[in-house]
Amino acid sequence: MFPNRHGQPYRKFRTELLRSLLTSKLTLDRFNLMNAKDLLGLIHPAIAIAFVFPLVGIVVNMAWQTRQRRLHPSQNKKIPPVVGREHLKYGRWLTGAVVGITLLALAYSIFIKTPFFENPPFQIGFVIAMFVLTIAALVLLYRTRPNQPLWRAVFATLTSTGLVVLGSQEGVFRRTNEWYVSHYYFGIVVSILMVVSLTIVPEIYKHKRWRVTHIILNTLAVLLFVGQAMTGARDLLEIPLSWQAPYLYQCDWQNQVCPEPQSSRPSETEATATFSPRTGSTPTLRSTPVL
Q: Could you tell me what percent of the chain has a pLDDT over 70?
């Protein structure tokens, strides 16, 4: 229900509406500074922020509840019995989301950031085949049964190998000289940890040592997710827009200095206006040579 058109609340409402429209216009104008390549580069961090990291929080919360219910069943009656099943379900979602978003980032780096289709045909076919095989291996890993440990190990190995091979392609920024703070290495390791966790799910219910292994691996994965958040934010600050890149890549990153921009020069002559205050004559233009 809208406010009364003749009262103070309506004028306030109209002012706020106009302000929000102007703000949205300014936001859209900011997007005009980005081309298709820049917009495609936002897909990976947007999915990570909107979907993957909230899912990490849900899985960690359910893991804690499952652990507490198993250790102290009489003291945690408020924890629903289905929490273990829900933890497994969301954990399977998390594995697919992490591997999927990693493949998405690799695809952007390989296909969009570099002139990929100018490579030899064999290399083009090999990289595309690796993407297809990696996705197929992950799908088959999901479809394996608990009584098929060998096939689970095979498909987990193929999925992990595909991630490593694709990550070694040209165009992927790895920051190998600083691997301990590399967003790429954190992402590859956490993806492989998620694949391993999915692979050993049937064993977790049978043997305590596998349960302890699961806890250790996923504690490490949570720490890597925190590292992913920090290094991802840092890399977003370092990546310029396409039209900014030619200038920024001239900077000396070691000494943190950039070249001075060239001053704009008129083409040949500069027009200046002169006015005679005595006669009140109209302004006249003269051409001044540019030195």
A: 78
Is 4 exposed, middle or buried (CB count within 10 Å of its CB: 0-12, 13-18, 19+)? exposed
Residue 218 CA to its chain's centroid (Å): 21
Prediction pTM value? 0.77
Q: Which of 56, 110, 91, 42 is nearest to 204 (CA)?
A: 91
**Burial degree of 190 (CB within 10 A; 0-12, 13-18, 19+):** buried
Residues shown for the chain: 291
- What confidence tens digit (pLDDT) does each residue in 211-261 have? 999 999 999 999 999 999 999 999 988 888 888 888 887 888 788 888 877
Q: Return the beta strands (E) in 187-283 as ranges.
A: 269-274
For residues 52 and 95, is the Cβ–Cβ distance under 8 A? Answer: no
In 3D space, the residue among 214, 178, 191 whose CA is nearest the CA of residue 137 turns out to be 191
C-alpha closest to that of 52 among 97, 21, 82: 97
In sequence order, the 6+-apart residues with CB closer than 8 A to the CB of 75 are: none
What pLDDT, in 10s, does the model give residues 147-202?
Answer: 999 999 999 999 999 999 999 999 899 999 999 999 999 999 999 999 999 999 99
The backbone torsions φ and ψ at residue 73, rounded to the nearest 5 degrees and listed phi first, read -65, -35
* Close Cβ partners of 247 (under 8 Å, ≥ 6 residues apart): 258, 261
In angstroms, what is the C-alpha Rg of the chain? 29
Nearest to 102 by CA among 185, 24, 27, 34: 185
User: Among residues 186, 166, 182, which one has the least CA distance to residue 238?
Assistant: 182
